[in-house]
Every structure is written in C-alpha cells, then in structure tokens.
From TrEMBL:
Protein name as annotated: Hypothetical conserved protein
PANTHER family to which the protein is assigned, alphabetical: SLR1083 PROTEIN
SUPFAM superfamilies: Restriction endonuclease-like
Membrane-crossing segments per the record: none
Coiled coil: none
Domain Putative restriction endonuclease, chain residue ranges per copy: 10-180
UniProt cross-references to CDD domains, sorted A to Z: DUF820-like
Pfam families with a match to the protein in the record: Uma2
Length: 184
C-alpha cells in the first residue's frame, strides 16, 4: 500500500490540544490539514507587533474594527492559522460564538523576521484562496512591506513591495495613512 498523507481537521487539531498532545506554549498552526511549527517570536517581531497594535488601536477605539493579535482565523475545516494581526469587522459578541472567517477580515498582517518566504509563498496564497481581501507581510529582514490585494483561487492578483519611504492605507480605511517606516 502506498503511504497516504493524513490531513487533520480543525476539530481534530483542537482535540489534540485538549488532550495535551499540543501544549499551550507550542507555536503551531493548522494549514490545509497539516500542523506547522512556527518560529519563536524574537524581540524585533514582538516590537513590530506592539507598533502595529498601537497604530491601529484608534480605529478600534472609534468602533470601526476589532483588533485581534495572534488569534485564530477559521479559513476552512482544515485551516486555522494564527495571523499576527487582524483588523476585523466589528461585532457585538467579539466573535465569542466562533472564530472569525475570511469574510470578517478587513486587513490581515503577518510580521516576518525570518519567515518572509514562508509568509509570502505559503500563507499569502492560502489567504487568497479563501478570499481574504488584503494581506500585508511586514518583512523585517528585507526592510519592506509586501501588500497583497485582489484574491483569487490562484493567489493574489496584485502584489506591491513597499520600502520605508512609502505610505500605504488599508483598503478598508483609505483615510488612514501608514508610513512603512513606522512598521519596520
């Protein structure tokens, strides 16, 4: 018999955690039924995430979005990544009934210290296949932000690479300018 790859469902992934097979401190996520171990969060990554949180907090305070930091995003029955930052459509229940899905995402941000290629070539196409409208990959090693727009089953149709001199705005908040230098 030829070996067959075993894909896990989100429910099985959660049961593994409940059974103690995956610890609370294990940095793992489920992508297309496979469990991926994520890189440890370094100080540059953590600082960038704090800058992002501080930057987008006024939008949340005004009730325009909910800010989610390293929370699960339910893409499908076999994919539940934990993006670094999500701007979500506001909801009264704060998504208590279920994790947000792609239709709830206003902006998804991944911070890459050593994982830039993985975030651009594995995670961004996954987000595109599931219809996440806008993804930013803040690549600290490159000193650039990769912006992905216009999702399709084959990936994002638009990919812009922005240097520290650039300014960008989330599509959902065009009046909210973000200097790329403030993210790096």
């Amino acid at each position: 018999m030829t070996p067959v790859r075993r894909r896990f469902s989100v429910e099985e992934f959660h049961r593994m955690a409940q059974a103690g097979l995956l610890g609370e401190d294990d940095r793992v996520e489920l992508l297309e039924g496979e469990i991926w171990q994520m890189s440890p969060i370094g100080s540059r990554h953590a600082a960038c995430l704090r800058r992002l949180r501080r930057l987008f907090t006024p939008l949340e305070t005004q009730g325009l979005c909910l800010l989610a930091v390293q929370d699960p995003l339910r893409l499908s029955p076999h994919s539940e990544p934990q993006p670094d930052l999500l701007l979500l459509k506001p909801r009264e229940d704060l998504y208590a009934e279920a994790h947000p899905g792609p239709e709830d995402v206003l902006l998804l941000v991944e911070v890459a210290d050593a994982s830039g290629t993985y975030d651009r070539e594995v995670k961004a196409p996954l987000y595109a296949r599931h219809g996440v409208q806008e993804v930013w990959v803040v690549d600290l090693a490159e000193g650039k932000v990769h912006r992905f727009l216009d999702p399709s089953p084959g990936g994002y149709r638009e990919h812009h690479v922005l240097g520290p001199e650039s300014i960008l705005s989330p599509t959902a908040f065009p009046e909210f300018p973000v200097p790329v230098a403030s993210l790096l």
